[in-house]
Amino acid sequence: MRVTQNMLFSNYVYNMNSSLTKLMELNIQSSSMKRVNKPSDDPSGMVRILDHRTTLASVKQYQSNIDTAKGWLNASDENLIQVSNILSQAKALAEQAATGTITQDNREQISYQVRSLFEQLVGLANLQYDGKSVYAGQKTDAPAFREVLWLTTNDRQFSQECGFSIDGDSDRTILVQFYDKTGAQGAGEGMALSDANLGVRYSIDGGRTFLTDGSVTIAGGEATVQLPRSGARLTLTNPAARVKVTPQGQEGNSEGTWLWLRPTAQYMGDDSQDTGHVDVKAMGAGTEDLIAWAAGAFGPNVAVRVDGYLSNGSLVRSPAAMGSQTVVYSYSTDGGVNWVTGNVQPPNGVASNVSLSIAGGLLTIASNGGNVLQPGAQFFVHARSSAIEIDISSTERVRVNEVGMEIFGGIYQNPDQTADSNGNRIHLSSSNASAAFSLAGAGSFAVMDSNASATKNMFEAMGNLIAFLETNNQQGVQQALASLTESQKHILNAAASVGGRENRLTVASTILDGLEFNENQRISSIEDADVSELLTQLSQQEIIYQAVLRSSSMIMQNNLLKYL
Length: 564
Prior knowledge:
Layout: H1 5-32, H2 43-97, H3 104-125, E1 128-129, E2 132-133, E3 145-153, H4 156-161, E4 164-168, E5 174-180, E6 190-192, E7 198-203, E8 215-219, E9 222-227, E10 232-237, E11 242-244, E12 258-267, E13 278-283, E14 290-296, E15 302-311, E16 314-316, E17 320-321, E18 326-332, E19 340-345, E20 353-358, E21 361-367, E22 372-373, E23 378-383, E24 389-391, E25 397-399, H5 404-408, E26 411-413, E27 433-435, E28 446-447, H6 458-470, H7 474-527, H8 531-557
Parallel strand pairs: 3-28, 12-26
Antiparallel strand pairs: 1-2, 3-12, 4-10, 5-7, 5-12, 6-11, 8-9, 9-10, 13-23, 14-21, 15-16, 15-18, 15-23, 17-22, 18-19, 20-21, 24-25, 26-27
Helix pairs in contact: 1-8, 2-3, 2-7, 3-6, 6-7
């Protein structure tokens, strides 16, 4: 076979490129210290590396979740310790006020401190972490508690016969008594609220003086107790209910029915026991004439937005009758950050309602005086599920928030009775709200008498303590002291629960650290280069490349002209 110069040159170039390519690959490995830098280096090994990296990414995400959960739980843990410390201060003040050796002025001075502690407790119960409310269940965008007025009585029978609601506000306890205008009824004798001779008096200075400009008026099956100079008004249901009289000149006689209008806190968050209901809130033009409800299993909250209607294949952004047009809508499960767009609902032939399929279930919108659905209208679907849980492993989740009512107590209004059919908020009353931890058959009012039991409801205990301090009631202070003791025990139990979950996070984090180490070791065993072997190969390849260059240059210098 004749060997041409072209064949020699091609062979030289091939040998040089092959040697140089191998040398460059070894150089890349030596700079990265990795044997596998691209799939072609080891196809099967790269598949295993990618699998391990996927597992490693999951581990790192779980570690990030644990860091987030630790932030929530650490904040709650420290917060509950602060609450316990404040309750210790309140107990010390109550113990001082419960003795018979101090005066009314002393108790009033103590009441100023206790009111300040109450304000601090409300603030702590409204703890936020990273801008989110910790104790309101999934209603993280609003405070868990708000201050309201509630009622305590010394008349157990009256509390079981009558309900109440309070309008207005007051920064002092309002003490209310009833008397017979004619003077015919003695102390402790009963009169109906509807009795024309029933008079009312009230005190806003702790019982030192009583004002008689109040009145009781009956209308619509209710008795409205006007307390003009107090800043509040009391409405009592069942006008036939009987109160016990405290005669004129005997304001200190406890045989009569006494009512204390005093502070407490209303819980505004989710109830962990109410997981089967879904709330829907509508916003936007025209939604006041609509009603909406949802059915399904909604994990996250869902925002739904009406984008318009399809007409001849085009999106039209103008109002149209529900059920007669193809609705185009979007929904979001992350608070509006990302939207699932382009959803369509064909007409159902019913002009008064439309049902939209969304993540978790079905949203139904119906007419409430107007059957027009306008583009831009939004509906927020909220499942009454209180727990916010975070994945800390492939098989384990941990709850990071709390239900404030189950820790601090307070007053809770039934979510099904917070708004009327027109969407107007229903006033807080004993018919739609009750104190947390209250016993069945306890009546509408908190009761202060010799048979009253201690409660672990912290806000009720503090509210009653304020009332009895401001009205110089030693027996009531003693009762409130017992409740504060129970409340503090309950708070410490809640702190122990939080601490237990923190320990779970510590264990999970340790396990993940071990898993991360193992995954890195497995990746390293496949991906990393053997340094000693790599250096040997690199040295050999350099010699080979230099030999190729030298031999090629020597042969290429030879030609026919040298032998002529």
